[in-house]
Amino acid sequence: MNCSFAACGGSFDGSPEWEKEAQHIARKPHECLECRRTIQAGEKYTRRSGKFDGSLYDDCFCAQCEEIRDAFTETGPDYGVAYGELWQDLRDNFRDLTTGCFSKLQTPEAKALLQLRWMEWKGLQ
Description:
Elements: H1 5-8, E1 18-25, E2 30-31, E3 38-39, E4 44-52, E5 55-62, H2 63-72, H3 86-93, H4 99-102, H5 108-121
Antiparallel strand pairs: 1-4, 2-3, 4-5
Helix pairs in contact: 2-5
């Protein structure tokens, strides 16, 4: 199984007019746009700000969701996942994750988060 959205039909149309991305260490709590978990003070996170379809955005993403997005999303103008849609797209496109898919992740935290969500989808949690 090829563990990428392009192989499973996931795609995203459009690009932001502009976007700025920066990695930070949280000084106060933030909410991850993907998993909705609270990013605690002291944790690493990514902040993306930009303008898309005439609207401004400024969103935070936990390190685990970023790692999972990077591992399972092909890059390029025709691929990607809309911000805030990562988990729904994974659920829709990766019903049969394999150990090979999990091995694409480097940190135990990202592997644990993906395993937890996968177990929820399968009704095992």
